[in-house]
Amino acid sequence: MEPLAAEVWVTDPRLEYVLLVKHRVRGWVPPGGKVEPGEGPRAAAARELFEETSLQAELLDQPAAVAVRSYRADWSPTLGLSYAAIVGRDVPLRGEQGQQAAWFRLDAEWDSVFPDDRGRIRAHVNRLAAGRAAGVTE
Q1: Strands 4-11 and 17-23, sheet pairing
Q2: Element holding 11 (H helix, E strand)
Q3: Looking at residue 112, which CATH number applies to its domain?
Q4: What positions does the domain Nudix hydrolase occupy (predicted)?
């Protein structure tokens, strides 16, 4: 099976913040990881979100994005599916040991080996906001 990864772009209900985890090598990234054998990418995204933040959130119906990238220099390129969820910022977070979870303003910069993710996440949030303005539910 080809490498497959899944992550979750978690935003707050006002669409002003994104939840990120501090990876020891990659910097601040959305919660996510490898899709295990026999596991679907949506289930993997939800599992990784819970493991890395303690959040159990309903993922939005449509995936947010797709990317092909190498997560390490010695790994094959991996297909990554990004899902989305909306969660209140008042929900307690418990990151994995040594991997802090924190909310960042969407208009802020954060240190990541994937700097293009900032623009991708912001574009997705803009689509969500436009859908709300048009009366489309998540």
Answers
A1: antiparallel
A2: strand 4-11
A3: 3.90.79.10
A4: 1-128
What is the span of the domain harbouring residue 126?
4-133
Answer yes or no: is 91 within a domain: yes
Quote the strand ranges of the chain, DSSP E.
4-11, 17-23, 27-29, 32-34, 65-69, 78-86, 101-105
CA-CA-CA-CA dihedral for 114, 116, 119, 122, to nearest 10: -30
pTM greater than the 0.85 cutoff? yes
Is a pLDDT exceeding 70 seen at residue 78?
yes
Q: Please count the structural domains in the chain.
A: 1
Residue 138 lies in a domain: no
pLDDT of 130 > 80? The answer is yes
Domain membership of residue 69 (yes or no) is: yes
What is the residue type of 48? E
What tokens appear for 105 in the block?
């303003």
User: Is 8 inside a domain boundary?
Assistant: yes
Q: What is the SS3 assignment for 34?
A: strand
